[in-house]
DNA sequence: GCATATTTGTCCGTATGTATA
DNA sequence: CTATACATACGGACAAATATG
């Protein structure tokens, strides 16, 4: 038995070393992915014992990983009770869209003279259409997120990019508690395409208007469904 | 000797319990304050042993605190070498101002109809003037930071507030390595006052223009001095 | 409301790996 | 290249809080 555990241990160490990260960060990445996939839905309690056993890391290391994810707002930490996958309130959802309006709008407004570097946006729209055709609705959502991350990237600010990555990861938490993912993702692929075309034509101001309408509609639809879901 | 340590321990526990936070967060808060005060200037290495001994917390707990502050970009974590108070590059400074232009500008642009809730801004300007009179230059800097935090707060988004708190904490790291704090703080008290008056008059768009010029000048002056300082 | 079991919070000792004088 | 110092990670211990019956 010690043999098999040793093998697992080595594998873990290697995959951590590969990218020169600590085991704690490796653990955080694994958990972050699980949460993003929806494998640990919001509200799930993550037991130190269970997770630590499953991933073969010590409690101390696991707690470091928990801290990281708590700081990213994916987990909440209740003193002496443990950590849970975050359940967003409707107010959180509203704040997320407030931030999106602020940042994504500012990113478009910060653009100088066309033409713009739109490769990432084009790729995201394309991936969105492909996912729609193949009815992979969850992937449609991922492509949409990727598109809006691309919009923010136009501002060329690493810190803003990171903020947005966090915000959109939070948004994913909402998606995972909703059924009918198609309804929340499919309509927006076309609208992203419209934003892209407007930008390609060099009309950043016009794109900003389309974006604003997009965010309003998306928020309305999401808040409506989410409030119903939470009861 | 166990006696005295016990007393310290109890004090620490109580002051943590008071706010219902863990010892790790209490530790992080203490360190954050020390860094903000400039007591640990950029580049300082924080030894697990030394700090842990001084604050009477175990290495495990201290490491949790380090993680938190690393995530806030106040510390950098070099694998197997420890944590250091961050030294900002000129590119960081430029990104910080990029973010400020984006966010503070967007906050002003998001304003609806006047009048606006300007209490926090008025208080910050007043505190700035008082600190100037008494030649407390560092406090002048604090008041200025507080003013711009107030601008962002006008957008009414907790997440944006938090982002800005982090950004401005980073900016403080730069201030602490510069001499002549007066030169970097005093000129801007008046300009904050001008922004405030423009807002009070209901002219958000005009305030945005003043702000943009403010940020350009401030960045230019700071980058210049900082680049010279770094050699 | 009480007693018990479970889980977290914290600390410590130690083995190993890594960086640097 | 060796030695030293230090970070990394683990596992065990016990106290304290919480959950369960």
Descriptive tags:
homodimer, 231 residues, mainly alpha, Arc Repressor Mutant, subunit A, Four Helix Bundle (Hemerythrin (Met), subunit A), 2 domains, disordered N terminus, DNA-binding
Task: Characterize the structure shown.
The structure is a homodimer. Chain A has about 230 residues and is mainly alpha-helical. The first copy, chain A, folds into two domains: about 5-85, Winged helix-like DNA-binding domain superfamily/Winged helix DNA-binding domain (Arc Repressor Mutant, subunit A); about 90-230, Four Helix Bundle (Hemerythrin (Met), subunit A), CATH 1.20.120.530. Helix content of chain A is about 75%, strand content about 5%. Chain A has ten helices and three strands. A three-stranded antiparallel β-sheet of chain A has the order 1-3-2. In chain A, strand 2 and strand 3 form a beta hairpin. In chain A, helix 7 runs antiparallel to helix 8. The longest helix of chain A has 27 residues, at about 205-230. The radius of gyration of chain A is 20 Å and the shape is globular. The first copy, chain A, starts with a helix and ends with a helix. The interface between A and B is medium-sized, with 33 and 31 residues. Chain A binds a DNA duplex (21 and 21 nucleotides) through helix 4.
Structural classification of chain A: mainly alpha
* Cα Rg of chain A: 20 Å
Largest interface: A-B, 33 and 31 residues
CATH class annotation of the largest domain in chain A: Mainly Alpha
And the CATH topology of the largest domain in chain A?
A: Four Helix Bundle (Hemerythrin (Met), subunit A)
Give helix % range of chain A: over 70%
Q: What share of the residues of chain A does DSSP label as strand, in percent?
A: under 5%
Number of helices of chain A: 10
């Amino acid at each position: 038995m010690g043999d098999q555990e040793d093998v697992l241990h080595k594998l873990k160490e290697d995959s951590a070393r590969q990218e020169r990260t600590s085991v704690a960060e490796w653990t955080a990445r694994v958990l972050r992915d699980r949460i993003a996939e929806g494998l640990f839905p919001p509200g799930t309690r993550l037991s130190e014992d269970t997770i630590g056993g499953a991933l073969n890391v010590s409690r101390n290391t696991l707690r470091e990983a928990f801290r990281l994810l708590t700081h990213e707002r994916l987990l909440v930490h209740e003193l002496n009770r443990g950590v849970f996958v975050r359940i967003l309130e409707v107010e959180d959802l509203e704040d997320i869209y407030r931030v999106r309006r602020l940042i994504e709008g500012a990113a478009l407004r910060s653009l100088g003279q066309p033409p713009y570097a739109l490769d990432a946006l084009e790729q995201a729209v394309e991936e969105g259409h492909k996912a729609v055709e193949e009815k992979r609705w969850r992937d449609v959502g991922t492509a949409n997120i990727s598109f809006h991350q691309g919009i923010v990237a136009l501002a060329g600010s690493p810190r803003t990019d990171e903020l947005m990555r966090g915000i959109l990861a939070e948004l994913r938490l909402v998606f995972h508690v909703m059924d009918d993912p198609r309804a929340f993702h499919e309509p927006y692929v076309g609208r992203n395409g419209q934003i892209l075309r407007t930008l390609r034509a060099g009309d950043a101001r016009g794109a900003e208007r389309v974006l604003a309408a997009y965010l309003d509609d998306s928020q309305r639809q999401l808040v409506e469904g989410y409030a119903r879901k939470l009861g």
